[in-house]
Amino acid sequence: MLEIKLYNLDRSYANHLESVDNNLSIVSSEGKKNRPFVGVLISVDNKFYIAPLTSPKEKHKKMKNNIDFIKIDSGNLGAINLNSMVPVNDSVCTKIDIDSIDDTKYKTLLNNQIIWLRKNKNTIINKADSLYRKYKTNTLPSNIKSRCCNFLELEKQLDNWNNRYNGYSR
What pTM was computed for the model? Predict the structure, then answer.
């Protein structure tokens, strides 16, 4: 069974994915240029994906959980944007060593998030899997599909990236 861990996404790979998917806003949007892409590693359809975590915002407390959005601790610890999950392998992501983080506030947030994520692992994996399968079979409601990344195209991009830069394939 997959253990829930937090990862950073390689910035060059993230920039590449953004260039091919308009629904993906990882690092290039205003205020995000130097922010790492922190996400939870999950297995979907025998592939690995990182689903991005967001920091807590007041709006999260008012939003509803959905097939593509999960509030972490009722929004108090942020959220998971499953609609923006991206395919990965070990050549494009790095496990976060929370203990090595100097910023105490950020370290505490990540520790609290990982505790919640591990307690809710099955829900997260089931929602991610359901979202992916419904996207793949074109059975998502149009309003949800329109805000999702093109998972199948991003999988092709991961393969292209690996062939071009790493000689690595899944």
Answer: 0.87
